[in-house]
User: Fold this.
Amino acid sequence: MSTPHCFENPPSKSTACGAGSVQEFGGLTTYVTGPPDSNLAILLIHDAFGFETPNLRKLADKVAAAGYFVVVPDFLYGDPADVGNPKFDREAWLKAHDTEKGSEDAKQVIAALKSKGVSAVGAAGFCWGGMVVVNLASTDDIQVAVVLHPGPLTEDKIKEVKVPIAILGAEIDQYSPPEQLKQLGEILSTKSELDSFVKIFPGVAHGWTVRYNVEDESAVKIAEEAHEDMLNWFSKYVK
Assistant:
């Protein structure tokens, strides 16, 4: 996971944005939003830029408005990618924030959700978080998965998927090129017992669903199309 796209177009961050609140949940500092008594929950797993980005929290609030209890934990422990720092070492950062560790942390969050009465959990991940979600999709911890412009995915990982999964990719993406995502979709389609969905969005680049410019009408529109696809996928299986 060392190509540039993951670290391009860094978003602004704000600790004050969103309708929810920040609290400890499952051992992690977490943005929480939505009805706390809902037995349906969605776990959103951020990209390299962390859980404080306004577009991500806006999306969390949108998912919560559909009736879900939504958690957005800080899987980076206060250390998001700081690409504006000339001393930022991309490779060292990636080694420090392994997606396998992210998956273990996510399982603790899911256990906390279930301990509060949640009966069904969906998970969506963006770039770095997409790889974490694919790991979760090979377990019984979640009921459904969505990955959006994921980091590199292997055929072996995809072959292990055991829950319904949607993959939303960008036409312009060095990490997960459309051709590769389509091949992974073909592997998923051989699993007759498993519902899957692969969609490539034209004219957009890696990160488009959460790093869009809110003043760019066309960018907002195509990001919202992906958000609706994600919500529709959740509505089929988180119930």
Remarks:
- The chain has a mean pLDDT of 93.
- The helical segments are 54-65, 90-96, 99-115, 128-136, 155-159, 178-189, 217-237.
